[in-house]
Each structure stands twice: as structure tokens, then as C-alpha cells.
Fold this sequence. Notes:
α5 (92-97) links the parallel β5 and β6. Strands 1, 2, 3, 4, 5, 6, 7, 8, 9, 10 and 11 form an eleven-stranded mixed β-sheet that branches. Helix content is 47%, strand content 14%. By secondary structure, it is α/β, with parallel strands linked by helices. It has 13 helices and eleven strands. The chain is globular.
Amino acid sequence: MQDFIAYSPEVAAARAAGRPIVALESTIISHGMPYPQNVQTAREVEDIIRAGGAVPATIALLDGKIRVGLTPEELELLGRSPEALKISRRDLPYALAARKIGATTVAATMICAELAGIRVFVTGGIGGVHRGAETSFDISADLQELARTSVAVVCAGAKSILDIGLTLEYLETHGVPVLAIGQDNFAAFYTPDSGFKADFRIDEPAEQARFLQTKWALGLAGGVVISNPVPAEAAMPRAEIDAITEQALGEAATQGIAGKAVTPYLLARIKALTEGRSLATNIALVKHNAQAGARLALALG
């Protein structure tokens, strides 16, 4: 297994010193934001984690290896490359064996983080049950990964393009706890409040760490969703983003866009329809999550 993992010098030094490490996904770089905002945001998020006392480990696939921590040059390559594959659980063996450039989703990043012994992972928003899943069966692999892989995922809730109610039902069925920071309700990516309650509200990093340690000490494998709402000053009005999302979903259906292509299309279309305001919100929430993730990693020790 370790033959497939390569640590950056910064992450290798952190492992040797026992310093807290925070995993970061790379799909947000290759498929979630346009260049150059994607690379700039990735570097700023890494710096926020460093400022918080932890070490960032952006994860991607390069040259047949799972790279845990990327150099500035590798970040730039990933941000510019049109060939970067979107990697989930099913894609990992192919991309590694074929030595493809790969950007890891929430699911794949969780797998790689656990292989590297990293317990805290920061992302923008998790995937979930897509609207209309009762006929399309389109459910993100992120949810199954949360049920089986023991990594805490700090996020701004689920992406608002999803059916959030069904997403939470799915997580409940599979025994995945959903914690909320600063409020009782689960967050909805562009907006702080989805209208659905989280399982537990735990504001303090030390208490979040105690929850995680207790869960895993009991032998209850699987992840934990930690919902950290987008700051109010960066949020978008819920009615506006709901209307725009409905429009983008209708356009995607008309064009026959399905599967992995749906989320990147919707995010790009929402960015266009909001004249870039959704991208600014996306960047703000990821940075906010990085602060929460660094605090949690320090509390876990």
C-alpha cells in the first residue's frame, strides 16, 4: 500500500514530528473553480491551515502515486491541466495503474487520507443525493465513503444543488453522525441554513475531538460530517440561489448532462448566472472551513 503513496517534504517532516495534518481535496482545484482562482485559492487555504498551527496535505494523483501534499509546481500543474481526471473510489486503481493525472473527490480524498493516517479533511461541500434520484439513482459516492472510512470531513454542509433532506436521511441510515458548528441546523453550501437540523451541535474543537475519539474508540468505523456554515457576510440569499439552481438543473437536463459531469456543469452555470458571486462565496466558505479544520486537527493532537 505504501508503495503507492508519496509524501511532500513538508508533510513527511510533519509526520516525523507528530504535527497535526489536515487533508485537502484537489477536485476543487481541477473541476470546481476556473484558473487562476483555483490555484490561488488552494495556496491561500494551505496558508490558512499553516497559520492555524497545522500542516496542509493537498491530495492528488501524479505519476502513478497518491501525492499527499503538493509542491507549488504540482499545484500549478493540476490547476492548469485539462487532462486531470475526476477521481472517486472506483477510479483510483485505473488512474494509478495508468499513471494518469487525477484530482480527488471527497470520497477518494477520504480514502487517501485514511491510508496516510490523516483524520481531518477539509472540503467545500460534500456530495449527496441528487434531485430526482428516485428515478436516476444518482447518489454521490461520498456518502458511502462516509459510512466506511474513518475521517472527519469539515464542510459547509452539502452542495445546495442536491436534495439535502434525502442526503441527511441517507447519512442517518448508514450511521454517519452530522455535527453542526455555531447553529443547530445543517448548512447548505452557498447559504448557512438548509432548513434541516443536524444531529448534534458541537461548537468547540476540543469537544468535537472528544466525540471523534469516542466514536472510533468504540470501534464504530466511518466518518463524521462537521457542518461549518458559510459566514453570513459571504452568503447568498437562499431564495435567489434556489431559483438559480432550479434554472441550472433544468438546463442540464435539457442538454442531457448526467453523472460526473453534473456537478461541475452546475457550479459553472451558477457562477455565470450569479455573475461570479457564487464563486466568491465558494472561496469564502472553503477558507472558513480551513480555519475550523486546523483547530480540530490541533485538538485531536
